[in-house]
C-alpha cells in the first residue's frame, strides 16, 4: 500500500440533495456525482442550490473524470453549472455513466451550450482505467433505469459508492441488483462503503415497484373525471406504470412539464419506456377529449414553484384548468424539507374542489431507497473495513451508523461526517482530515454566485415588511433641511392613520437632521446612517414591523 486516499463530500451529508464527492489519490481527482437541490422557502428568489465546488477551481487538470451514478437531479443537475464555471480554466474532464444517465447529461449540456464536453456511455459491468483509479460500474435498482453503484479501486483498496439503491427482487425494468458482484467485492475486500442513508429510519424491506401498477389500476378504475398523476420527471418506472394502467382503463395519456416530456422522450428512444401506439396526447389536445378518457402525468410532486402541477393548482397553467371532479394523485412522497410546499399545493387543490390521493391513502408510490434491512444486507454483502454513511440528514447518517454497528462493524470504523470534512485513509488507518470549504452556491436566474446572507436577509425583509425610501434635502452651507422630506413606501401594511404616520415620519427626519446640524455633521454617509437608525426605531415602535429603510440625502 502507498499514498493517501481522500474522500471529500461536497454535498449530500446532513441533507437530502446536491450529492457530490471528490476522491483524491496521488494528487489526482475523481468526482462522483454532481447534483443540486431545490431552495427552501426562506431562500427568496433563489432558483437552485448547488454544492460549493471551490476545491476544484485551479485543479481542473487534476480531474481524471466525473462519474454519475444515475439521472436524478440531486446527482446530475449541477453538472452543466459546474462545467460552465470551470471551463475558463482549460479543457473540461470527461463525463462517464450508464447510457440513460449520459443521454440526460447530454441534454442538459446542450441546453447550456457545452458542446465541447466528452460524454461517454459505460454499461454496468464495464471498467474504466483513469489515472491511479480503476472504476467499475455495478448494476443496482432504483426508481430510474440505469442506476449503478461505483467501485473505485486504488493501491490502498476499493471504495464503494452505492448511490441510491434498493434491493427490489421484482423490478419493472429488468434484472435485480447485481448482488453476486457485491458479494464478490466483499470477499475481495472493500476498504470503505459510502452508502445511501435515505431510509435508515424505516424498518423492514421497501415495497417493490412492481406492486404499484395494480394499485394505480385500481385507483384509476374508481375515478370518473380527469386524473392527474404527479411524480418525479425522472421516475420513468412510474410513468410506465401509469401508461400501462391507462391502457387497461381505456384512457389517453398526456405528459405535462418540460422535464417530464424531455425525459420520457429520452427513455423512449433508449427502450426504457414502452408506449403503445395512439395512447399519447399532446398538451394542446387535452381539451379535445372527454374527462373520463384522460390521464395527465405532471411534474410538481414536490411543490416546485414553476412546476406544471403547482401552476395548475394556482390557476396559472396555459393548457389545463383544474376543476371540481378532477382527481390528483401524488405518486411520490415529499423529500425531507419539501413538506411545506407540497402541503400548500394540496391545500390549493382542495380549494379548487379536486379529489386528492396521496401515497398515505393508497399504495401508489414505492420508495427507490432501501429500508433498514436492505442497508444491513448491503453491509453484510460487502463487509467493508470502514463505513461512511452518505445521502441523508444527520439523523439518518446516525441511524445508518447504528445499523453498521448492529451487523458487527466496530464503532471506531464508522465515520459519520459532514460536507467538507474529508475522510483520509493510509496504511496506518482512517481518520477525518482538515475541513474544506463546502457550503452552497445559489443559482439566481441564469447566473451562479454566492448570494450573500445579507442579500437573502434583505429579500426576506422586503417580502415580509416592505420598504421605506426617504429623500431628505439639506443645505450645503449649514446642513439644515431646506425642503419637506419625500417619503415613498411599498409593501408596508399601513394602519388607517397612514397620513398621520407619514407626517410623524417627516417630523422624525427633521429631528435627526436638526441634531446632525447642531453637531456639525456634514458627511452624507453618516447622515444616511443616522436617518436609517432613527427611522427604523421609530417605525418599529409604531408598526411593530421592520421594513427596509433606505434614506437618501441630497445637498443643494
Overall shape: it is globular
Low-confidence stretches: 450-454
Rounded to the nearest angstrom, the distance between the terminal CA atoms is 77 Å
Question: What is the CATH architecture descriptor of the largest domain?
Answer: 4-Layer Sandwich
The percent range for helix content is 25-40%
How is the CATH topology of the largest domain named?
Metallo-beta-lactamase, Chain A
Structure description:
With 556 residues, the chain is α/β, with parallel strands linked by helices. The protein folds into 3 domains: 5-204 and 367-449, Metallo-beta-lactamase, Chain A (4-Layer Sandwich), CATH 3.60.15; 209-357, Metallo-hydrolase/oxidoreductase (Rossmann fold); 453-555, Ubiquitin-like (UB roll), CATH 3.10.20. It contains 14 helices and 26 strands. An 8-stranded mixed β-sheet has the order 7-6-5-3-2-1-20-21. A hairpin with an 8-residue loop joins strand 9 (133-139) and strand 10 (148-154). Helix 5 packs across helix 6 and helix 13 (498-518) packs antiparallel against helix 14 (524-543). The longest helix has 21 residues, at 498-518. It is globular and about 85 Å long. Residues 450-454 have low confidence and may be disordered.
Amino acid at each position: 500500500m502507498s499514498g493517501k486516499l481522500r474522500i471529500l463530500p461536497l454535498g449530500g451529508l446532513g441533507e437530502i440533495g446536491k450529492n457530490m464527492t471528490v476522491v483524491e489519490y496521488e494528487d489526482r481527482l475523481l468526482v462522483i456525482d454532481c447534483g443540486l437541490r431545490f431552495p427552501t422557502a426562506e431562500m427568496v428568489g433563489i432558483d437552485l442550490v448547488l454544492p460549493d465546488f471551490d476545491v476544484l477551481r485551479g485543479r481542473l487538470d487534476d480531474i481524471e473524470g466525473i462519474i454519475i451514478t444515475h439521472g436524478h437531479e440531486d446527482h446530475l443537475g449541477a453538472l452543466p453549472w459546474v462545467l460552465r464555471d470551470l471551463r475558463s480554466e482549460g479543457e473540461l474532464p470527461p463525463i462517464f455513466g450508464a447510457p440513460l444517465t449520459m443521454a440526460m447529461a447530454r441534454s442538459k449540456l446542450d441546453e447550456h451550450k457545452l458542446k465541447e464536453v466528452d460524454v461517454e456511455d459505460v454499461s454496468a459491468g464495464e471498467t474504466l482505467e483513469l489515472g491511479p483509479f480503476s472504476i467499475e460500474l455495478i448494476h443496482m435498482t432504483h426508481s430510474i433505469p440505469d442506476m449503478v453503484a461505483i467501485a473505485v479501486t486504488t493501491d490502498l483498496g476499493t471504495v464503494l459508492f452505492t448511490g441510491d439503491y434498493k434491493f427490489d427482487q421484482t423490478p419493472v425494468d429488468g434484472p435485480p441488483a447485481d448482488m453476486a458482484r457485491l458479494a464478490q467485492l466483499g470477499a475481495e475486500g472493500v476498504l470503505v462503503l459510502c452508502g445511501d442513508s435515505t431510509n435508515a429510519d424505516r424498518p423492514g424491506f421497501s415495497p417493490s415497484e412492481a406492486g404499484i401498477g395494480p394499485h394505480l389500476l385500481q385507483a384509476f378504475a374508481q375515478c370518473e373525471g380527469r386524473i392527474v398523476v404527479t411524480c418525479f420527471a425522472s421516475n420513468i418506472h412510474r410513468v410506465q406504470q401509469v401508461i400501462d394502467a391507462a391502457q387497461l382503463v381505456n384512457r389517453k395519456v398526456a405528459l405535462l412539464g418540460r422535464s417530464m416530456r424531455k425525459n420520457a422522450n429520452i427513455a423512449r428512444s433508449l427502450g426504457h419506456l414502452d408506449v403503445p401506439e395512439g395512447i399519447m396526447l399532446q398538451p394542446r389536445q387535452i381539451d379535445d377529449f372527454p374527462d373520463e378518457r384522460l390521464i395527465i402525468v405532471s411534474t410538481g410532486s414536490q411543490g416546485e414553484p414553476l412546476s406544471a402541477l403547482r401552476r395548475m393548482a394556482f390557476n396559472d397553467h396555459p393548457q389545463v384548468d383544474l376543476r371540481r371532479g378532477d382527481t390528483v394523485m401524488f405518486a411520490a412522497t415529499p423529500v425531507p424539507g419539501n413538506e411545506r410546499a407540497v402541503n400548500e399545493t394540496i391545500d390549493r387543490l382542495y380549494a379548487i374542489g379536486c379529489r386528492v390521493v396521496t401515497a398515505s391513502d393508497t399504495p401508489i408510490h414505492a420508495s427507490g431507497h432501501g429500508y433498514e434491512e436492505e442497508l444491513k444486507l448491503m453491509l453484510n454483502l460487502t463487509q467493508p473495513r470502514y463505513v461512511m454513511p452518505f445521502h441523508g440528514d444527520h439523523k439518518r447518517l446516525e441511524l445508518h451508523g447504528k445499523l453498521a454497528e448492529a451487523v458487527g462493524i466496530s464503532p471506531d470504523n464508522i465515520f459519520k461526517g459532514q460536507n467538507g470534512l474529508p475522510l483520509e485513509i493510509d496504511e496506518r488507518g482512517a481518520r477525518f482530515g482538515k475541513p474544506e470549504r463546502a457550503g452552497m452556491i445559489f443559482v439566481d436566474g441564469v447566473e451562479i454566485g454566492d448570494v450573500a446572507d445579507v442579500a437573502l436577509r434583505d429579500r426576506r425583509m422586503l417580502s415580509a415588511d416592505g420598504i421605506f425610501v426617504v429623500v431628505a434635502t439639506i443645505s450645503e452651507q449649514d446642513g439644515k433641511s431646506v425642503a419637506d422630506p419625500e417619503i415613498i413606501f411599498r409593501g408596508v401594511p399601513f394602519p388607517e392613520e397612514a397620513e398621520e404616520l407619514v407626517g410623524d415620519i417627516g417630523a422624525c427626519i427633521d429631528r435627526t437632521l436638526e441634531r446632525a446640524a447642531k453637531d456639525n455633521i456634514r458627511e452624507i454617509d453618516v447622515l444616511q446612517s443616522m436617518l436609517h437608525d432613527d427611522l427604523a426605531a421609530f417605525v418599529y415602535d409604531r408598526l411593530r414591523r421592520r421594513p427596509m429603510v433606505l434614506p437618501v440625502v441630497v445637498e443643494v
